[in-house]
Design a protein that fits this description.
The chain has 226 residues and is an alpha/beta fold. Helix content is 49%, strand content 10%. It has two domains: 2-19 and 157-224, Helicase, Ruva Protein, domain 3; 33-153, P-loop containing nucleotide triphosphate hydrolases (Rossmann fold, 3-Layer(aba) Sandwich). Strands 2-3-4-1-5 form a five-stranded parallel sheet, with helices on one face. Strand 2 (75-78), helix 4 and strand 3 (95-99) form a beta-alpha-beta unit.
């Protein structure tokens, strides 16, 4: 019974300490993402129908998408969410955010959705890991519509941005860490947001399970075991 209670307590702590903050104030700007952030900040005063954000997994596309969803009171979907029966309903939104267009794309459904969005004077933001011109799209009309959208790229984050993201992710978990820990991790983490998330989650979980404070010696020992 004691062990079960201890395990349950750890799980409750994990649940409470891993809820991310996804507001605009939490999306830090650097040279790698400033162009994409400008689009979100300009909502709804866009001069075009929409735009495409291209970047690798973990580059911050989903965070940006959620910020725009909040600002625009729009809807966020995947390709698999677009069906014959709901195209009209999806198009009846001021802003539609389509994530990962490069995955499971139904060309005819997306083409119909595009047409209805245009008729309704709605806006769209699309995210992709692959530049639009490199997507294998057979429908000429769809390819033309996608190619007409401005494309902005999320580049590799610089040291300043990585440091801020490390701090933010620890803060999301209810943990305050010293800058020496941040600087130590900065030199050892891959330059992707998914890598930062993985290492912060690993360090945080190890800290909870061992009931130890996150310090440089603690992190050094933990990473040496991996």
């Amino acid at each position: 019974m004691r062990e079960n209670f201890k395990s349950l307590s750890k799980q409750l702590i994990l649940d409470l300490r891993t809820i991310p903050s996804m507001g605009r104030e939490d999306y830090y700007v650097s040279k790698s993402n400033e162009e994409a952030v400008k689009w979100v900040d300009k909502w709804p005063e866009w001069l075009t129908f929409g735009f495409v954000v291209v970047g690798p997994s973990g580059a911050g596309k989903s965070h940006l998408a959620n910020v725009l969803k909040y600002f625009s009171r729009g809807i966020l979907i995947k390709n698999s969410d677009i069906r014959d029966k709901n195209i009209m309903e999806l198009s009846d939104n001021s802003c539609l955010i389509l994530e990962d267009i490069d995955t499971n794309l139904s060309e005819i459904n997306l083409l119909h959705l595009f047409n209805f969005l245009l008729e309704n004077n709605s806006k769209i933001m699309i995210t992709s890991k692959i530049p639009i011109k490199k997507l294998n799209i057979s429908l000429a009309d769809l390819r033309s519509r996608l190619s007409s959208l401005p494309q902005v790229n999320l580049g590799l984050p610089d040291d300043k941005l990585i440091s801020r993201v490390i701090i933010k992710q620890f803060t999301d978990k209810g943990v305050k860490v010293d800058m020496e820990v941040v600087n130590y991790l900065l030199k050892r983490v891959d330059r992707s947001f998914s890598s930062i998330n993985n290492i912060v989650s690993t360090v945080n979980m190890a800290s909870i399970q061992s009931s130890r404070k996150i310090t440089v010696p603690f992190v050094r020992k933990l990473l040496s075991l991996k």
